[in-house]
């Protein structure tokens, strides 16, 4: 089913004054703008700090120099066109470079520029790689947003992945439920795809990205409910974003709303140091304070999320603070030998990424006496 109509130019944002649009035009020239019309209709245009506006509408601060195009070094883990294999059991398959809307905090905004093609246009080499690597038990379809693909094309990819004997979990990462839930509601074929995929020994996961409680509209809840009723399992991941969900009350409300909708809070990410993202980034230790306070206000069902950084070396969980140290742990590591490794780092309230805690040119040592590592938690 087709997506809802999209606005592709800031000149079409008639709720803004001409001077406001003028400040956005150079931003959109550098980082393209795309937003579904129904999503834009839910923005309070009288509030310059409206969280939905911050998620999708260009902001002049995006031009501040900061960050990299590939902050997690995804290129280093690409094994076939569109196929990343960073952790032994998990493969990422980038099936499209299209999205229902372009998040201003996107860590893959490089995909939407000219001359970049990192997508599996022909998925056969990637699928062959997965077949040959029996350690891969789950595959994440991502991009871009897989739910922007025609259902027939998406179904063909899902079916081939699900037929690989050692694959036991198929995941779809998508913001369509927030941006354009009508695409799901209008298409019974998606529910048919779920029913055809789920087996007693294989789960089909919807990895949503709801960043703010207001994105959980009635239509969004209905769209997710339909997929859950067909047999899908839903988890949510969101970066912690300045002016969007960096208030403990807002984040706690998001956790509760997700849980009541049958969506398990999964990861809360420290915003990656991607070009254009500085104004949305929150320092690591402030993230921890917001996250911990939010979790203290919800039930056990709503506090299953972990606060992590998707670093080039692995998913680093921010665990807590102890006097003058911040405690981190390799929740997942590109090098399996580092899995579970604890890190005790001198506190740095200005740090926005793991690298900011390290002296220039240094990285972690297996020797706890180095002051960074402190052994395995396994």
Outline the fold blueprint.
Blueprint: E1 6-7, H1 18-30, E2 35-36, H2 37-40, H3 51-56, E3 78-80, E4 83-87, E5 90-94, H4 124-132, E6 138-142, H5 151-162, E7 169-174, H6 176-179, H7 182-185, H8 188-197, E8 203-208, H9 218-229, E9 233-240, H10 248-260, E10 263-270, H11 284-296, E11 306-311, E12 314-322, E13 325-333, E14 341-346, E15 373-376
Parallel strand pairs: 5-6, 6-7, 7-8, 8-9, 9-10, 10-11
Antiparallel strand pairs: 1-2, 3-4, 4-5, 11-12, 12-13, 13-14, 14-15
Helix pairs in contact: 5-8, 10-11
What labels would you give this structure?
26% helix; two-stranded antiparallel sheet; alpha/beta; 13-stranded mixed beta sheet; 15 strands; 378 residues
Describe the protein.
The protein has helices at 18-30, 37-40, 51-56, 124-132, 151-162, 176-179, 182-185, 188-197, 218-229, 248-260, 284-296; strands spanning 6-7, 35-36, 78-80, 83-87, 90-94, 138-142, 169-174, 203-208, 233-240, 263-270, 306-311, 314-322, 325-333, 341-346, 373-376. By secondary structure, it is an alpha/beta fold. It has a domain at 6-63. Helix 10 (248-260) packs across helix 11. The chain is globular.
């Amino acid at each position: 089913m087709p997506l809802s109509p999209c606005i592709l130019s800031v000149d079409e944002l008639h709720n803004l004054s001409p001077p406001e649009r003028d400040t956005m035009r150079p931003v959109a020239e550098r980082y393209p703008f795309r937003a579904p019309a129904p999503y834009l209709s839910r923005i309070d245009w009288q509030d310059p700090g409206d969280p939905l506006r911050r998620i999708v509408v260009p902001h002049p601060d995006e031009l501040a120099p900061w960050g990299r195009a590939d902050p997690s070094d995804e290129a280093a883990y690409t094994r076939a066109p569109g196929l990343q294999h960073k952790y032994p059991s998990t493969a990422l398959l980038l099936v499209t470079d299209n999205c229902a809307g372009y998040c201003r905090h996107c860590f893959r905004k490089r995909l939407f520029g000219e001359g970049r093609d990192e997508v599996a246009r022909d998925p056969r080499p990637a699928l062959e790689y997965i077949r040959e690597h029996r350690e891969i038990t789950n595959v994440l379809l991502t991009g871009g947003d897989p739910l922007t693909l025609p259902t027939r094309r998406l179904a063909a990819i899902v079916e081939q992945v699900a037929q690989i004997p050692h694959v036991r979990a198929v995941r779809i990462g998508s913001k369509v439920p927030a941006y354009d839930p009508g695409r799901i509601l209008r298409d019974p074929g998606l529910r048919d795809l779920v029913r055809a995929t789920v087996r007693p020994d294989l789960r089909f996961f919807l990895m949503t990205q709801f960043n703010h409680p207001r994105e959980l509209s009635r239509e969004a809840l209905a769209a997710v409910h339909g997929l859950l009723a067909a047999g899908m399992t839903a988890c949510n991941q969101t970066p912690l974003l300045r002016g969007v969900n960096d208030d403990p009350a807002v984040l706690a409300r998001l956790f509760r709303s997700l849980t009541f909708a049958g969506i398990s809070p999964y990861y809360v990410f420290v915003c990656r140091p991607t070009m254009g993202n500085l104004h949305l980034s929150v320092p690591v230790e402030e993230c921890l304070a917001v996250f911990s306070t939010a979790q203290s206000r919800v039930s056990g069902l709503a506090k299953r999320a972990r606060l992590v950084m998707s670093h080039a070396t692995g998913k680093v969980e921010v665990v807590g603070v102890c006097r003058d140290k911040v405690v981190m742990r390799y929740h997942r590591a590109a090098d399996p030998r580092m899995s579970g490794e604890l890190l005790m780092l001198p506190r740095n309230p200005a740090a926005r990424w793991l690298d900011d805690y390290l002296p220039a040119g240094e990285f972690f040592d297996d020797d706890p006496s180095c002051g960074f590592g402190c052994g395995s938690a396994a």
